[in-house]
Amino acid sequence: MKVLFSSWLGEVVDNRGKPPESWSDCPAVTLPDTFGKDRPMSAFIGWGGVVVLNESYDIVETAYKYAQALQASSCAKCFPCRVGTKVMEDTLYKILEGNGSDSDLVQLETLCGSISSNSKCGIGQLGPGPIKDTLDHFKADYQAYISGGKKRPNYHYPYKMTAPCTSACPTGMDIPLYIEQIKEENFAGSMATIREASPMASSLGRACFHPCENNCRRDNVEKSLAICKLKRFAWDYENTHEVDMPLNPNKHTREERIAIIGSGIAGCVTAYNLALMGYRPVIFEKLTRPGGVQLTGIPQYRIPLESLDAEIKFLEGIGVEFVCNVTFGKDETFQTLRQKGYKAIVLATGADLSKGMRTEGEDQGYEGYYGGIGILKKIKYENAEIPKYKTVLTVGAGNTAMDCCRTFARLGSNSYIVYRRTEKELPCDPHEYAESLDEGVKYMFLEAPKRIVAENGKVVGLESVKMELGEPDDSGRRRPVPIEGSDHVIEADCIISAIGQDPDIFYMGDEPKIKLNKWDNPVIDEDTMQVIGVPDVFAAGDCAMGPETLVIASGHGRRAAQSIDQYIRGEEIHLSDEQIMENIIRKIGAYNKNEKVPNPKGWERQPIPICDRDKKLSSFEEVELGYTQEQAMEEAARCMRCYIVGMACVISDSEGGE
Ligand code: SF4
Ligand code: SF4
Description:
Layout: E1 5-6, E2 13-14, E3 34-35, E4 39-46, E5 49-52, H1 59-73, H2 79-96, H3 102-118, H4 122-126, H5 128-137, H6 139-146, E6 159-162, H7 164-168, H8 175-183, H9 187-197, H10 201-207, H11 227-240, E7 257-261, H12 265-276, E8 280-284, H13 293-296, H14 305-318, E9 321-323, H15 334-339, E10 344-347, E11 353-354, E12 369-371, H16 372-380, E13 391-395, H17 399-410, E14 414-418, H18 430-438, E15 442-444, E16 447-455, E17 458-472, E18 478-482, E19 488-491, E20 494-497, E21 501-502, E22 537-539, H19 542-545, H20 550-568, H21 577-588, H22 613-618, H23 629-636, E23 644-650
Parallel strand pairs: 7-8, 7-10, 8-9, 10-22, 12-20, 13-14, 13-20, 14-15
Antiparallel strand pairs: 1-2, 1-5, 3-4, 4-5, 4-23, 6-23, 11-21, 16-17, 17-18, 17-19
The site of one iron/sulfur cluster has 15 residues, from helix 7 and helix 8.
């Protein structure tokens, strides 16, 4: 992007004095043109440097405000950070007020160096860097204040403290803090921190695909922190010890009821946050018990029913009501819920219809042919008797396909994955792939299904065509191309389609104002989760934006609850400045995989204990056993507390000031 000035990641681009049409590009950083929808933004300052977008900036005021944010973010455990950032803030204020001198600039430079090299975490280590950049590259701006006469503009400076791991987490969980609390043996504090972002610590700690760990700076040293499994430890500790469970001081302090349709993670998190605000959320569930995909789709060996039940019980204690055996669109509708006085309706019905493979024979009702989500539900939720199949082909290679193939490996079948690309393009979590191999699953790569072969109404094989990889498609992966004349039949008595899911939207017809996109999701404002054109209806989770992960659905729930609160209070539904900052920081990228992190190597990640291998292969017992207290504290101690602060300069006369 074109900028007036940038020192981002040490790459200096300086277009000052040049006409905008001849500004050179700044490849190191991408920023939005505006702060939120339409507020003009002129600069960004943060852990990677300073970026000035246009002439409406004041670098000295920006540096002062940034020093103030660092001081406010300091946990005060290190003397150089606690005291140094305060001295920095005061000195910059003195300069801004026209009382500074050249010796103040020298002192600031010295302070930047000593705070950076003597502090323990990102706030102290990385925070002074951009202030030093302003001193190095904007001397004349400082001199204008020192020589007197310059008046500060009082722009608005929203800021956000985050960390690379936190920024990658869709719930915005304060990961460094909950890990530090585990390290300090403050497990209740750790759970409280986790619950500020999501109440589903067990589900997430067991089955999240942890984007945070792919953005962990410790990976630049040797191996990322076991962020996910530490969360599970905190929950397991609480669940297995006599501890005081947190109460909800606002429980049912408001009269308004909100109807939430679906009891998966999006619905539960929406309800939890509404309950904390004092509302009376009621979750309607079509099945006999709550839990969504954790109940029906994620196998027992990954999320045991017992741990899910404990999460639901906790939510009930906080003030969430569950009403089961209610099918929305039949037993209740938009109209009946409105007539009963519900102030808002949240659609959180997931995506529980298996996509067809568009393969001849799949609509014939053959015995031995299943949709992935359907068969997982039969096994876990219905506890149904499944015929003993000799050879099971699971078509697809995403995480639902992994759940299917690993399930049938446990049921004693020869379990295969049929995938039209190669190992390199596998879309599933690498850990799931490794586990499936360990459990004996075999892979047939470069195969695409063409026809279900059946005899007497029973599956006997899959006609498949061999593929080869061609040019990359829109997803960047090489497109599989059929090899002419390569059709062949793979013998099998069971075929599972696990190539994706669709939302079940039969109830949408009751509210004609809801528009659907081409994937049958309601058209929503993705910032606020409000359904466009129907102000009292919100959507969250897979039904809102298509099949995604548990943690994305959890993030939706938090945002939906905030929007519903604003809606009920009659306010404009909007993102807070902090949330806008969070989005900007995500866009910039808080994690730099090329960063040379100076910490010494060699503190290896604690391996997660797993159950006895025979049990693992022959039963649905939980595979991962969780850390012991000693292991968890040892693992937590590896965290480098990589907090960073990002701040924008927003042109606004109404806010800012001191
Ligand atoms: S631990 Fe980090 S925030 Fe706390 S005082 Fe040290 S450098 Fe500052
Ligand atoms: S080391 Fe800790 S704070 Fe740093 S990115 Fe990893 S988990 Fe987050």
